[in-house]
Design a protein that fits this description.
This protein has about 110 residues and is of the alpha+beta class. The chain contains four helices and three strands, in the order E-H-H-E-E-H-H. Among the domains are: about 40 residues, 3-Layer(aba) Sandwich (YefM-like fold); about 35 residues.
Length: about 110
């Protein structure tokens, strides 16, 4: 199995990037490089492949969905005293552990 190719991260200033834009885009497209663009020594942007951009978008979407799920879960605990929240957490953990034990038992039964 071939391991994925990870591009190296390069740094370039705006003028250098402008002068070599076509070559830079070719290296990025071939996944040889990701280029951080600096202006007056300050990183201001980057040139990445479309695959990398799609992966970043996917990560952002997953993060947003997880944050929304967390907000929804928090709403169920608004106004509850801390000891009740702790009890609910312990109950949920116990349920997950019981489900995991049952799944392992079923897997062991199927394997034998």
């Amino acid at each position: 199995m071939t391991l994925p190719k990870f591009p190296r991260i390069e740094t370039s200033n705006v003028s250098e990037t402008r002068n070599h834009l076509s070559e830079t885009l070719d290296r990025v497209h071939r996944r040889e490089a990701q280029v951080v663009i600096e202006k007056s020594g300050i990183p201001v942007g980057a040139i990445v492949s479309m695959d990398d951009l799609a992966r970043l978008k996917h990560i952002d979407e997953n993060r947003a969905a997880l944050l929304e799920a967390m907000r929804e879960a928090q709403q169920g605990f608004v106004g509850l005293p801390p000891d009740e929240i702790e009890a609910e957490i312990e109950k949920a953990i116990a349920e997950v552990k019981a489900e995991s034990r049952e799944a392992r038992k079923r897997a062991e039964t199927l394997a034998s």
